[in-house]
Specification:
mainly alpha; 20 helices; binds phenylalanine; binds sodium ion
């Protein structure tokens, strides 16, 4: 079977940018930057981008391009079974993330419609948790299906899987060619409008005000590294898979720099837009920006609806544009993350793309219903917390250590990249991958393990979000552990003879 390929270079870059630009850019970056030194955060951020983000992106692009397979197959071709498991681990991490990421996109889709008449009313928090999510059970219980989430969720999966069924060029590439430019235009309209609101300057002041003391704190550097991994979609198996569809003659390093900087530009834009809007809201309510600044679900689904309520005109229109931005940014990331297991399954078992989409995507869609139940938010919250800490960053750490130190493939990969790229990789690349990244990620993993284990025994500080030990272990730690165990198990089986 002929391997699928991107139709154009721009198509590949748009798809990679589509994966990178996601919910994280809009609801995560602005707050992470604000909390970790404001304007001064750009120093650790740029450092993490240039020493880990882009070097790993180059690494993953090179591996995918050279070995022309999904992450497990590419790693298998790089280092045999002793390397294959890592690919599956990343694939299972991606699988788990896709199950709840789809649900958040479904919320955004529903909120796009709610925007038109501000269906959330005055108490947006009460609306989100009680009316919309119907969070009426205890953490760990599921309760019934919440139809207001379930219906858009079906739509999200229908769109994502429909695009994946259409293939790499006619599906993924085409979708990104439409979604990404649309997203940029819509988001620019929202940001420009936000900048012209009363109080915008106050919000920007709060966002950019540099706190240079903060960056003396190692935790700020850890936050920068953690964010860069999540934001660039590296160590998720995604970028390897996408690069495996590049034609033989393709620039690697240039594409990686373009992808990395495009993602950062979008984050910066989001930071400006979000804080301009927060400044507006703070000035309306006569409070400080610090009192309204937040991230994640709270920012997007509680604070933004309030901002939209107070908007000086065309509320429904701007509200819908904001939630449509979230939906589009999320969809292109969901497509990329689902493609990791579609590609992995189809190669391992020698089945067609359509069957792999049906099995893999179908299973993920089915599991995602758990997050569309009355207790779904708790599961989502705890799975996200654990999988991000002990999935992505851990995969990244193991990846660089295995490639550079255990299998010693850095030179081979560098030569491959240099043979086709404009920008040549020098010693700095290997130094970043082999020394800087492992030190920072190693320090980070050690700290994370320590705090999370200590929390289990410390009755005073309590667990993450005050959840019970049982719930943390059963739904968080177990899920993160399942990804690595399933990864090892999947690597035990043989490849279908078509891949021999
Ligand atoms: N890069 C995405 C973001 O910034 C996060 C993501 C990674 C989503 C991988 C899906 C898959 O939101
Ligand atoms: Na991102």
């Amino acid at each position: 079977m002929e391997r699928s390929q991107w139709g154009t270079r721009a198509g590949f870059i748009l798809a990679a940018v589509g994966s990178a630009v996601g919910l994280g850019n809009i609801w995560r970056f602005p707050y992470v930057a604000y909390e970790n030194g404001g304007g001064a955060f750009f120093i650790p951020y740029l450092f993490a981008l240039l020493t880990a983000g882009i070097p790993i992106l180059i690494l993953e692009f090179t591996i995918g391009h050279k070995f022309r397979g999904s992450a497990p197959l590419s790693f298998f071709r790089l280092g045999g079974k002793k390397m294959e498991w890592l690919g599956w681990w990343a694939v299972f991490v991606s699988f788990i993330i896709s199950c709840y990421y789809a649900v958040i996109i479904a919320w955004a889709m529903r909120y796009t419609i709610f925007s038109f008449n501000q269906a959330w009313g005055a108490d947006t928090q009460d609306f989100l948790f009680n009316d919309f999510l119907q969070l009426t059970v205890q953490p760990g219980q599921t309760g019934g299906i919440v139809w207001g989430v379930f219906i858009p969720l079906v739509l999200v999966w229908a769109i994502a899987l429909g695009i994946l069924l259409a293939g790499v060029k006619k599906g993924i590439e085409l979708a990104n060619r439409i979604f990404i430019p649309t997203l940029v235009v819509i988001f620019l309209i929202v940001v420009i409008r936000a900048l012209t609101l009363d109080g915008a300057a106050m919000g920007l002041d709060a966002f950019f005000k540099p706190n240079f003391e903060a960056i003396m704190d190692p935790s700020v550097w850890v936050a920068a590294y953690g964010h860069i991994f999540f934001s660039l979609s590296v160590a998720f198996a995604i970028m390897i898979t996408y690069a495996s569809y590049l034609p033989k003659k393709s620039d690697i390093t240039n594409n990686a720099f373009i992808t990395g900087f495009a993602n950062s530009a979008f984050e910066l834009l989001a930071g400006i837009g979000v804080f301009a809007a927060l400044g507006f809201m703070a000035s309306q309510q006569g409070v400080a920006v610090a009192d309204v600044a937040s991230a994640g679900v709270g920012l997007a689904f509680v604070v933004f609806p309030q901002i939209i309520n107070e908007f000086p005109g065309f509320n429904g229109f701007f509200g819908a544009l904001f939630f449509l931005s979230l939906t589009l940014a999320g969809l292109t990331s969901l497509i990329s993350i689902t493609e990791t297991y579609v590609a992995g399954i189809s190669e391992k078992f020698g089945i067609t793309r359509n069957k792999a989409v049906a099995f893999g995507g179908g299973l993920a869609a089915l599991i995602s219903i758990l997050f569309a139940t009355q207790g779904g938010l708790y599961f989502l919250d705890v799975a996200d917390y654990f999988i991000n800490q002990f999935g992505v960053a851990a995969v990244g750490l193991v990846e660089v250590v295995l490639v550079v130190w255990v299998f010693r493939k850095a030179d081979l990969l560098r030569d491959h990249a240099n043979s086709i790229s404009d920008i040549r990789l020098g010693g700095w690349w290997k130094f970043c991958l082999g020394i800087i990244t492992p030190i920072v990620l190693g320090y980070m993993m050690f700290g994370l393990l320590r705090t999370n284990i200590l929390k289990q025994f410390d009755t005073e500080t309590g667990n993450y979000e005050g959840y019970s030990n049982m719930f943390i272990l059963g739904s968080g730690a177990a899920v993160a552990a399942a990804a690595i165990i399933l990864g090892i198990l999947a690597s035990l089986g043989a490849w279908h003879k078509s891949q021999a």
